[in-house]
Amino acid sequence: MDNGKTTIRGQRLEDERRVAEEPGSSSAAEAPAPREEEPPADFICPITTELMSEPVMAADGHSYERSAIERWLATKSTSPMTGEALVHSFLAPNHTLRRQIREWQQARA
Fold first, then answer.
1. Fewer CB within 10 Å, N side or C side of the chain?
2. Is residue 96 in a domain?
3. How many Cβ atoms from other residues are within 10 Å of residue 92's Cβ?
4. For residues 17 and 23, is the Cβ–Cβ distance under 8 A?
5. Does 45 reside within a domain?
């Protein structure tokens, strides 16, 4: 029976609903904390899975962190990405990729 008066239980529900809808309310759905921006996939060494600081290009056309691919080539003559034989073990510095990584890092700072 509704006589125009709000019951205590009804008032409590209404208050909870109003609080939940208020911005900044602890009852409102919390926005996720801003997470650190992930680097582009091309900036990550496929061997170490870490951001490269000295990227070099191998005969397979892929770029790797210099120290990681040098360790790889010390015991293998295949591509870490494809498993196919590399035609040579020369490593060319990838200056363009290194510059892009540095620019990305500076933009985040």
1. N
2. yes
3. 11
4. no
5. yes
| 42 neighbors 52 (Cβ within 8 angstroms) | no
pTM (2 decimals)?
Answer: 0.67
CA-closest candidate to residue 86, choices 69, 103, 65, 67: 69
- Determine the distance from the C-alpha atom of residue 12 to the mean position of all C-alpha atoms in its chain, rounded to a whole number: 43
| Domain total in the chain | 1
Domain at 60, CATH number: 3.30.40.10
Residue 6 CA to residue 85 CA, distance in Å, equals 80
pLDDT of residue 6: 43
Structure tokens at 17: 């609903």
Count the neighbouring beta carbons within 10 Å of the beta carbon of residue 91: 18
Domain that holds residue 74: 41-108
Q: What is the per-residue pLDDT for 18?
A: 55
